[in-house]
Amino acid sequence: MKIYTRTGDAGDTTLFGGGRVSKDHPRVAAYGAVDELNAALGWAGTQIGDEPLQERLLTLQHDLFTIGGALAAVPREDGSRHPHLPPLPTERAEEMEGWIDEASGELPELREFVLPGGTPGAAALHRARTICRRAERKVVHLALHEAVEEDVIVYLNRLSDLLFSMARLANHRAGHPDVVWKK
């Protein structure tokens, strides 16, 4: 199988389930931002030496691949999901809340604004958090114009909170304090 197809040379692309749209279409922007987020999580995993956090990041990467597929699919007229798409990880938002609570129990109380930084792993997780927020904005924009499963927005919102907590936790476990904003 060749990697290049030349079908997008004119600036358009094929959606899952058929149909072509411009590469600057809001749907392409949304699943592209989720793909960028997935890559950022992969990179963050290489920057931290904490195996439990790495395992959770890998789980999240699998989720994001599923979400990207759902976003790349042409909405069906009857509102149903395409039969070849795996189910969205709807239970993960609640699981992420548990992970955030676990991290919060290990971390010092948050009393100041935290700047992105610290260890390379924490900085990579903060970067992923900002990419997650951009992906969320792209998905919300798409949802204003076309059907998007509500669970996707919930997932991305919760994930950005988790990535913030994971960044703080990566610093904490490495013995590095939060980098706080000095007014």
Description:
With 183 residues, this protein is mainly alpha-helical. It has one domain: Hypothetical Protein Ta1238, Chain: A. The protein is built from 5 helices and 2 strands, in the order E-E-H-H-H-H-H. It has a two-stranded antiparallel ribbon with strand order 1-2. The longest helix is centred in the C-terminal third of the chain and has 26 residues, at 120-145. The chain is elongated, with a radius of gyration of 18 Å.
Task: Write out key terms for the chains shown.
Hypothetical Protein Ta1238, Chain: A; mainly alpha; single chain; 183 residues; two-stranded antiparallel ribbon
CATH homologous superfamily assignment: Cobalamin adenosyltransferase-like
Instruction: Assign the CATH class.
Output: Mainly Alpha
Shape: elongated
Rg on CA atoms, Å = 18 Å
- How much helicity do the residues have? 55-70%
The CATH topology assignment is: Hypothetical Protein Ta1238, Chain: A
So, CATH architecture? Up-down Bundle
**Order of neighbouring strands in the sheet with most strands:** 1-2
Q: How much β-strand is present in the residues?
A: under 5%
Averaged pLDDT, please?
Answer: 92
Total discrete domains: 1
How many beta-strand segments? 2
Query: How do the helices and strands follow one another from N- to C-terminus?
Result: EEHHHHH
How many DSSP helices? 5
Class of secondary structure makeup: mainly alpha
State the end-to-end distance: 56 Å
